[in-house]
Amino acid sequence: MSKRSLSIAEMTAQLQKPGPALRSQRVDKMTAPLAEMGMQVTLDQLRPYDHNPRTERNPRYDEIKESIRQVGLKHSPPITQRPGDDKFMISDGGNTRLAILNELYEETGDDRFYRFWCVYRPWVTEEQVLAGHLSENENRADLSWIEKALGVAELKRLLEEHEGEVLSQRELARRFSELGFSVSQSQISRMLYTVEHFWPTLPATLRSGIGQPQIKKLIAYREACLEIWKRCNSRQEADFSVAWHDVVSQFDYEEQTELPWSIVEDRLLGMLEDHSGAHLHTLDWCLKRVLEYRQRRQDIDDPEIWQPLQVEMERVRNPEAHPLKFYPPLPGEEDEPSKRERRPRQEVDTSEPLEFEPSGPSQSPPRTTDDQPTFSDENSYLRQELNALRAQNRKLLEGRQAAVASEESVLPINEHEQVTDQDSIAVLRSDDDLAIPEAEEEADLRTDEERINSLTLSVIDEPEGKRKLRHAVAAMHGGQAGDFQDFAVQSIPLMSAGPLTPVTDIWWVDAHVQTPKKLRYVIYRLAQSLGQWAGFPLSDTELYPAPLQLNQEEGLGYHLQPLSGDLEQDPAAQKVWQLLAALSGEVQPAYPSDISLIGDLLGTAGEAEHLPDEVLIRLFRLIRLVRVLRTQESTRGDS
């Protein structure tokens, strides 16, 4: 049976029936692409990155705007889309161009500013996008220091939230590099330090574009003041932060790219003086020394820095036992006459005729009531001495002539002997043999200061206050401090004011230094001077430890790390390393170890570069202190 065909009316009725209900959700837009691709977008579909590290107007904004107005958008910004967001956003820099396109479209209505092609990049993470913006701006070098620092702090926060733990600065540098943003650990440290300590205090100055050199200097001052603060009292660092903020915030001004450092330093010293009670001169001394040592990357635990402050704090705690006049001297206070200052001797004019002859043995010069010879009395005394010597010379001459005459009458003499005796007689006849040679006479009549200056390599200008301090510290330890000016006229003076430890006397060791721990520290400093000449770094680097490490508990005060980097093949570095190792009884077989090593360094053999005089003096002093240390250790062992 054949199937009945539908009529036209029936077919029309079937077609007009409603279709099945739509069970799926309506889609108003396409999903974001899954791979990088080019796509055309409009200004309505695009927005700037909401965590853009740039917070200030781009200094090249007008220049970029005019370029886009003339030739259009030549470099389209990359875009991405955050999951769940209904708009695209800038991915790796380009927020300035997007703002300019919006302005130009509002001004002109030109469709080329409204619709343009971009490169779409799939979304990865929030950290990746922020690192992309930082890297792009870093390549163009148009971010201010504080903008970059705030961006680094935000990126650090995002990474730590993602990891669920606090990351070290070295780990942050590694993670940043993986994200395409290369920055060193030291830079990260300074940026985070800026955000933590300077951003709340100097916001206007930082926004004005203060640079990294000023930040480094500000960090150095804050760390130095904090170190002095801790050594003055036991107050918390939080108290220092408040005091620091109160002082430095007074210098926060707009359009300022350099701080008035002389005024800042004065205010900081005043702050330390108010909170510690120490004298301003002492604080200024410590601040300058700490800044100097940190710049050289030296250990700031050197007693030379802190002894004045320790004495000053003792005075603050017990003013009656330690009066202020002790150190430093007050302005206008008259110092006691120094025993090193001696009165120059009166010159004797030997060209004048002498008015009398000596009639007896030499007499002591006349004395005044205070048992001190006057200039006129000393002059007369010298004349008497000179006359006595001339009279004695005449007697010797007469006796010599008589002896020669008697020998000639008894024994024959050859021509050579005769000439010799006649020459001797001629010499004795001369009045010049009693006169003081010109050079010696000048040396005798020179002042002590002139004699000392002529015998020293380079002079150390030691302030009187510091000299008094050394004597006081030595007296507190039951000893006596030595003064170079006193020793210089009775021993061989060797002095060097080089970059590290000055040497004022090779042999003398102050009593307060004669403890194993202090001796080891001074030995370490002297060894550093040798190492510095050989190119040793004074502190650890990011890649290698310093060859010389301080050890005040045992040994000579230092222990050696293997040479690394360029120093590993440097002959001078190898010889100095081997010399320092030999002093402690150890050698490195791979380095020069034959006896010529000493000759090369001392300059007595070979043509290799040898130690300069100022370093050689320190080597002598180092050996002397090592022997003192060994003697003390053996004495303690026997007891």
From TrEMBL:
InterPro entries tied to this protein: Chromosome_partition/occlusion, ICE_PFGI_1_ParB, ParB/Sulfiredoxin_sf
Superkingdom to which the source organism belongs: Bacteria
Start and end residues of each stretch annotated as Disordered: 320-377
Protein name as catalogued: Integrating conjugative element, PFGI_1 class, ParB family protein
GO biological process: chromosome segregation
Organism whose genome encodes this protein: Halopseudomonas bauzanensis
Record's compositionally biased regions (Polar residues): 360-377
One CC-aspect GO term: chromosome
Regions that span the bilayer: none
